[in-house]
Design brief:
Elements lengths: L1 H25 L13 E2 L3 E7 L20 E5 L2 E3 L12 E3 L5 E2 L1 E9 L10 E9 L2 E10 L5 E12 L2 E4 L1
Antiparallel strand pairs: 1-6, 2-5, 2-8, 3-4, 3-7, 7-10, 8-9, 10-11
Length: 168
């Protein structure tokens, strides 16, 4: 009797799981997904970075391999943007004009900056300001609490309309 009960429970559980995954997978398209072409938007983009601290190598960062972790990293849509760490000083604006092409739709900056250990009791921030032909598109500050690494993303949307580029 116990053997039949165990067999029935296994059939119900395994059969139910198989039925669930079969119905779930039936809604997915077959074959590999095709990446859609993304329209690049040309413009005269200028990124201004203003930190409230001078960057310093993070002594607590995980050191994987032989490469050192950078004290300041900036990415646009997953592509690294070169910013010399020596240029990042408290209150000084760093301007970057050679940005990769922006894409129509959603774009995203990712920033990771390490404040000095001596400022472990202070809240620190990095202001990102993106302009196109003088018009502000993004003006956002990313904060780190009490000496923590300042890390975060800033998402924004660009729409292409006629001869001018406009952001929303």
């Amino acid at each position: 009797m116990r053997f039949l009960l165990s067999l029935c429970i296994w059939i119900v559980f395994v059969g139910g799981l198989w039925l669930y995954t079969w119905q779930r997978d039936a809604g997915f398209p077959e074959g590999p997904s095709q990446a859609q072409a993304v329209e690049q938007i040309k413009g005269e983009f200028l990124l201004e970075i203003t930190p409230t601290f001078s960057v310093e190598k993070d002594p607590f960062a995980l050191q994987a391999g032989t490469g050192d972790s950078a004290p300041f990293a900036l990415y646009l849509n997953g592509k690294a943007i070169a910013v010399p760490a020596g240029d990042i000083r408290r209150g000084q604006v760093v301007r970057i004009s050679d940005l990769p092409d922006m894409q129509q739709g959603t774009n995203e900056f990712y920033i990771n900056a390490s404040p000095p250990l001596a400022e472990n009791t202070m809240d620190n921030g990095v202001r990102l300001r993106l302009t196109d032909r003088g018009a502000a598109i993004v003006d956002h500050t990313i904060w780190g609490n009490r000496g923590a690494v300042v890390s975060g993303t800033v998402s924004f949307t660009l729409a292409h309309s006629g001869d001018d580029d406009h952001a929303h």
